[in-house]
Amino acid sequence: MPGQGLSYAAASVHNEAMTDTQQPAYLTTKELAELLRIKERKVYDLAAAGEVPCVRVVGKLLFPRSDVEAWIAASRSGPSVGAAPLPLLLAGSHDPLLEWALRESGSGIPAFFDGSLDGLARLQRRDAMACGMHVREADNGWNVETVRQAMPDQPVVVMEFAQRQRGLIVAAGNPHGVAGIGDVAPLRCARRQSGAGSQRLFEELVRGEGLDPATLAGPVVPARTENDVALIVLDGSADVAFGLAAVAAQMRLGFVPLVEERFDLVLWRQAYFERPFQAFLRFAASDAFRQRAAAMPGYAVGGFGTIHHNGSGI
Rounded CA gap, 212 and 270, in Å? Predict the structure, then answer.
């Protein structure tokens, strides 16, 4: 089987490197073909297509042994056998449906919500198994390029969780007549932490109206979750907040829709195969999860599980 041949090849490269430091640093076409158990013609095809690390010296193809070993390792799929265990933690951006599903699924995965970029940083350090993100990018993309730049060639997966409607949360009845971002200038605006995807997007939209986010009035202390930012409007400490339609409806507040965003889960591929995350995935496929999402205004989960990025290949 092809998978067995690749595993054998990876083991062979590793064992040779460990037992014989005198081996040449470069493999010939024939040696690489024997290592991978393929024909030499296939090696030439891989080299021509730029799919295998190689150099050409005086018309002869040579393959750097260390680069080939790394190339083989990057081609594997499935759980990372022997990798250091990941902490049982989901970090990143807060989402009320995600928070509920983690609890109801019995996955045992605790959450620490402190913004998309904080979650990505924790994922980079392997301080979390996964994180939630909703960072808008060029051409109305979401999350993928941010992850690629932060974790190039790393075995991480960007998996869609939900589409959400985001906009301006205002007091019931919209007493200030807010119709869009341009109307927030004279109002008290609630804020999120600087690493929150929603705060970054809010400031981007504000600048697009020719306003300076730093000049907006409102509470100085940032709200850490979607619920917290809406509560600031509910208790009268702010006139407007940039938040979710579902949270506004839950608190019987007014809502002005502005953006349809994609909320993704970014996780180490190793974490995908572990029991806690598998328990969460099974629950997300249940009627209970779909019914809960349908009851939350502005949510759509038809794309749940779609893989938008799979680092280091499969």
Answer: 43
Coil, helix or strand at residue 53: coil
78: left (phi over 0), alpha (psi -120 to 50) or beta: left
CB neighbours of 67 closer than 8 A, spacing ≥ 6? 53
Beta bridge partners of 136: 142
SS (H, E, C) 248-268: HHHCCCEEEEEEEEEEEEEEE
Give one word for 66, left, alpha or beta, with left for phi > 0 and alpha for psi -120 to 50: alpha
Residue ranges and CATH numbers for the domains of the chain are 2-74 (1.10.10), 81-314 (3.40.190.290)
Convert the pLDDT of each residue in 164-180 to its tens digit.
999 999 999 999 999 99
Threshold 0.90, pTM exceeds: no
Q: What b/e string do you get for 65-101 counting C-beta neighbours within 10 Å, with b at 16 or more?
A: bebbbebbeeebeeeeeeeeebeebbbbbbbbbbbeb
* Contacts for 29-36: CB closer than 8 Å, 24+ residues apart: 29/61, 29/63, 31/63, 32/63, 32/68, 35/9, 35/68, 36/5, 36/6, 36/9
Tens digits of per-residue pLDDT, 250-296? 999 999 999 999 999 999 999 999 999 999 999 999 999 999 999 99
Contact yes or no for 114/91 (Cβ under 8 A): yes
Q: Which helix (H) or strand (E) holds 97?
A: helix 96-104
Task: Provide mean pLDDT across the span 139-145.
Answer: 93
pLDDT grade, residue 6 (50/70/90)? very low
Q: How far is CA 233 from CA 2, 58, 221, 242, 249, in A?
A: 59, 72, 14, 10, 13
Q: Report how far residue 241's alpha carbon sits from residue 254's, in angstroms, rounded to the nearest whole number.
A: 11
- Region 286-308 average pLDDT: 97
Q: Which amino acid is at 174?
A: N
CB 23: neighbour CB atoms within 10 A?
A: 12
User: What is the reported pLDDT for 74?
Assistant: 57
